[in-house]
Structures are given as structure tokens and as C-alpha cells.
Amino acid sequence: MSDWSESDSDSDENTAPRQYKERVDYTTTLNSVEFQMRFRLDKASVEQLEHLLVEIMPHLRVKGTRNHDVSPLHQLLLALRFYALGTMLLSVGDFIGVSLVCVCKSNTEDGFYRIARFPRVQGAIDCTHVRIQSPCAEIGEEFRNRKGYPTINVQAVCDSELMLMNVGTWWPGSAHDATIFNMSELKIQLETGMYGNKWLLGDSAYPLKPYLLTPLLNPESRGEELYNESWIRSRNCIERTFGVWKRRFPVVALTMRLSLQNAHAVIIATAVLHNICRLQNLEEVPPEVELPQIDPVPVPINNEGGIHLHREMLIANYFNNL
């Protein structure tokens, strides 16, 4: 029996006849390549994710008009299609066959060492700006970044396999990367030694800490040059992660025209889906929409502190001997 959705308007003498849209099951009508191109995940991953969602949210059904419920599969495909296009909800709903009303309801350390022989690296940290529409006149300026447009400044940590290990989405575009880090739960965890005797790698926007290593601005010795070279190659994982994430789910590369709460949810959801794709070793698929050129937002250098013993000892006892 076909799954049908009716339009939002009730028919009467003064309106056009009610129109129905057939909800197509794209897991059967599209081949594997076409499916992954449109939904960014393969069929097996979508099926596993659907079963997981139903297991943890057994009542995951959205009421359509006249009891034409939207199935968990169609809700999932709606979300994935939106993440793939970053387009208006009406266009996404038309693709799936759901009315607009229903749519709107809806071992790391070793890995880093293999890259550039940098020891004891837990992850790479950085921030990336996700464009949004200006929230409102009262707080809009808080979200305007140094390039002049409104964004959410998203802090993330990745591992050597480009998996997102930590994502924070609650800071406006005007916030400095170091401020976001200093106010984060992640910093508290690092300060209390939760991750052991390991390092994060962060750029010069971050403070140099016993658990967070930044580059040398003016390397002089051969050991210092090797340190910087290894740091650059290792820390590049976070830049690559952002690129892979945004190409697979262009919604985080384009301008989100959603409420702030929903924008935060989309960022987290696509980060989780990105990790699923990495775990499943899914090949990258090209975006269907043209993505804007990503120009880095200028970030002031953090001048906190002077000589830091932990970095100097690492260079003296390790990089000087390579």
C-alpha cells in the first residue's frame, strides 16, 4: 500500500481540489551511487541509523494531515536531503513527497605519530564559522564576525582519522577562538587531567598550555624548525576535517536560514553523521550545490606567556634528536 501525503489546504467550494504526493522509497528506487549522492550516506548506514532512531525514540512519527504520518525513514531522508542541499524546506519536502507542515515538524595518538612523528597528540583543535541569517536586531551584532557577516563560531577537536571528537556550537561569530576555549567544558576536562599526559595542537589564536601546543612564531634552531614542520602537518587534520564535513553536508557551508536553536541542532547532527560516514569508510561524494569559497576569518595571535618549559623540553629532548 502506498504511503501518501496530502497538501495543507482543506478543499471546499472555493479552493482547488486536494492534491496528494506519493512518498517515494528512495532506498529501492535509487541505485547505490545515486542514493549516496543525494543523501550523503549509503543505504546500509541509513538503515542502521533509522533502526537506532526508532530504538531510542519509539514514538518517532510526525503527524501529517488526516493521519498520514511521516515514517521515521522519511523523516531521516528529509533531514539528510536538507543537510545535502542547505535549501529551503519546501524544496526538500517536494523531493521526498511530504507537505511543508510535516517537514517543519520534523587510537588516535599513534595515528598522529604516523603523520609526522609528533608524539602524544590527542587531537587537533580549531574553530570554523558557520554562516547564519542574522538572529535579530538585539543580538545580531554579536554574531557578526571579522569578515562582516553573521556566523556561529564552532569549536571542534578531531583525531588523526578526521573524526570529530568534540564540538561546541553556542558561541557567536564575534567570539575569539581563545575565549571559546577558555570558557569551554573541554578546558576544564584538560585542566583536571581527564585525558592524561597528551596534547592538543592549536594555532596561534590559542594559549600555550601544558596540554595545548601552539607553533613557534620565529623558529631558530633545527629542532624548532622540525617541531613546527611536524606541528603543521599534524594539526592540518582539523582543516581537512572541516573541509570533508562541509563538502559532504553543504548545509554547514552555506547560509542557514533557521532559528538559532535549530541551527545548533543541525551542526551537531551533521557532525554525528560525518563521524558515521568516517566509521563506515564511505567515499566522499561531490556536493550538488556550489559551495562558497572559504576564506579564513582573521584571528589575532594570542600573546599569553613567554617561554613554556613543556614545549622547550619537547624540542630539546625529542625534535633536536630527530
From TrEMBL:
One of its GO terms (cellular component) is nucleus. Residues 125-275 form the DDE Tnp4 domain. Belongs to the HARBI1 family. Pfam families: DDE_Tnp_4. Residues 1-21 are annotated as: Disordered. The keyword Nucleus applies. The chain crosses the membrane at residues 82-104. Its cofactor is a divalent metal cation. It is found in: Nucleus. It comes from the Eukaryota. GO terms for molecular function: hydrolase activity; metal ion binding; nuclease activity. This is DDE Tnp4 domain-containing protein. Keywords: Hydrolase, Membrane, Metal-binding, Nuclease, Nucleus, Transmembrane, Transmembrane helix. Residues 1-13 have a biased composition (Acidic residues).
